[in-house]
Amino acid sequence: MINLFSKRQKKLRGEVPEVYTYDDLNDNLRTQIIYAFNDAFDKNNGKKVRDVYEEIRKILLREYGLLFLANNQYDDPEDDFLKFYFKEDDFEKVIDAIELICKFIDYKIKKNPWDYSQRFNPDQALIEINERFKEHGIGYSYENGEIIRIDSTFVHSEITKPTIALLWNEKFSGANEEYMKAHDHYLHGRNKECLNDCLKSFESVLKTICKEKKWQFNQSDTSKKLIKICFENELVPSFTQNQFTSLQNLLESGIPTIRNKLGGHGQGTEKITVDDIMTRYALNLTGSNIIFLINQSNIQ
Question: pLDDT digits over 33-49, tens only?
């Protein structure tokens, strides 16, 4: 990425996004992402280009239940994909396409760089895509195989990314899957499900720590019981007990209520809603506590 004169002047004048938006994926951003994608493989190889776009296109067609993305007269998969990509108004579908682009770079091109390009580092393409999101004030980032929603650069750099990095440890694979699911639910506005997976991830971390430390516990133990085990074995200093109890109360008081009213007992006449602010708080608090617990455990 080049720091052009016009960009520098906008920054000096304070004309840079201060608050993230999520549903305005403008054409400039979409185009810049395609440039980054195309740089990751040899555009001069016509067959390779066709194969790359056809693979992504087929996934979208199957998942959406369509025969064509945009052009029912299509002759070229790149043309059909790009027409859809630039004309689609549903921003979540555009994010679907961008996520598949990132996954292709991450899992296909990075593993077989000589099959796609002999001159470009695919990691640079992924870095550029994330930088373009930030440059346009769009609150998404590709992390650990998925596009996730971010609400501030500080929270993202100090909580979300470190949490994902720690959970990348194979011993915490279950917690990692649940934490990423929580982010996916939050991205798509499924706040109740997000809270549910926050609790699951938190409990999975506690269980993994107990297992690795050989502390006796049952798989059916709740976070309250698991936290008590950690306290009794002095993983967590006693002066932090209230803070962890608060996290437990936040997560456990919301989820059983949702299950009771929406699950076994039905919702009745009262509609249960969980707003974005509370969900974001729970997600970030979960990440902060996971970082603390894993660091305290010294599990490598």
Answer: 999 998 888 666 656 77
